[in-house]
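Summary for the steering committee. The consortium agreed at its last meeting that each partner would contribute one worked example illustrating the joint modelling workflow. Our contribution is presented below. We chose a case with several input lines so that the handling of multiple components could be demonstrated. No manual editing was applied between input and output; the record is shown as generated.
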Amino acid sequence: MACASCLSLLVLVAMASAASGQLSSTFYDTSCPNALSTIKSAVTAAVSSEARMGASLVRLHFHDCFVDGCDGSVLLADTGSFIGEQGAAPNNGSIRGMNVIDNIKTQVEAVCNQTVSCADILAVAARDSVVALGGPTWTVLLGRRDSTTASKTNAERDLPPPSFDLTNLTTAFANKQLSVTDMVALSGAHTIGQSQCLNFRDRLYNETNIDTTFATSLKANCPRPTGSGDGSLAPLDTTTPNAFDNAYYTNLMSQKGLLHSDQVLFNGGSTDNTVRNFASSAAAFSSAFATAMVNMGNIAPKTGTQGQIRLTCSKVNS
Ligand code: HEM
Ligand SMILES: *[C@@H]1O[C@H](CO)[C@@H](O)[C@H](O)[C@H]1NC(C)=O
Ligand SMILES: *[C@@H]1O[C@H](CO)[C@@H](O)[C@H](O)[C@H]1NC(C)=O
Ligand SMILES: *[C@@H]1O[C@H](CO)[C@@H](O)[C@H](O)[C@H]1NC(C)=O
Ligand SMILES: *[C@@H]1O[C@H](CO)[C@@H](O)[C@H](O)[C@H]1NC(C)=O
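What follows is the complete predicted structure of the assembly.
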């Protein structure tokens, strides 16, 4: 009888570790005890010199995880003989911060040679960026290894474009084992950072569920003809652009979502109540965001002897 409960405890423990995908918060505690503090100092410095870099680093982790798992694949630069993900439509001319990650990697290599993966650096840098901009913290699970390949095709297949409606977004996140609540919470990362005009022009000129004053002010720097002003920037959160807060959701409630894919989360559909909840409770948003970031960070990690620990994040070891 005693061992019936022992056994069920063992089974529970085994299930819990399988559910967290073999990653562990203590992975570098003995092999590289200064890894996390090294990353944090570098991220804090980068974000104080340019607040937007915090947003760019959070997005880089998302664009890593959604394409064949969190394996650092997004960091691999194109070469004469290698086509990576950086030229894929959602990334090209848009993702930023790869040099910051390369610099962090150099510092981490200096304290522990060939121990800490680029995929883990991205996951920690995303958390530290959110904290640097005033958002919640969470414990990052570690032990991911780096890919030796990347896929432009899969990046274009799996990264959702801003034209997506609620159904398309739900499918894209479900394909990564993420719930609708995770999707609404993760979209709250658009409380920081900026978008180029080409990604919200159609909404400005065609949609009616947009605040008129908001649309008029955006049109000045995002003229209608395609091609002109494509790259001009607007904050994703018009009220507090560099603060990691829940203003993204109050903006949605007043039809001030910048992207089509933002406003569909509050447009009379099934996610309206979640948006209302996150708008009215900063604590509810913080908690859901932290949970969702851990869930996103668990997408298909390479562990054990899979992949490698890159020496330089932008290229496969030679
Ligand atoms: C729900 C589906 C999503 C869509 C359709 C989407 C789309 C976009 C687009 C079009 C931009 C602007 C890119 C540019 O103009 O260069 C952007 C920026 C950004 N996205 Fe998303 N995104 C989504 C989800 C996420 C998630 C899950 C995260 C992170 C958890 C995230 C974090 C960011 C951040 C922080 C920026 C600003 C980056 C910067 O300023 O450098 N997004 N997103
Ligand atoms: C990326 O965009 C640039 C223009 O900004 C273009 O010249 C290049 O061909 C694009 N790369 C890919 C792989 O499409
Ligand atoms: C780290 O170790 C690898 C081999 O394990 C070696 O090739 C590389 O030069 C070392 N780098 C530094 C900075 O010591
Ligand atoms: C959304 O999904 C539907 C059904 O899968 C598809 O027909 C439609 O083209 C998608 N919309 C966008 C903007 O990709
Ligand atoms: C939406 O707006 C863009 C830019 O103004 C325009 O080129 C496009 O044809 C419009 N699409 C629809 C479906 O109205």
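The chain has 14 helices and two strands. Residues 130 and 143 are 21 Å apart (CA to CA).
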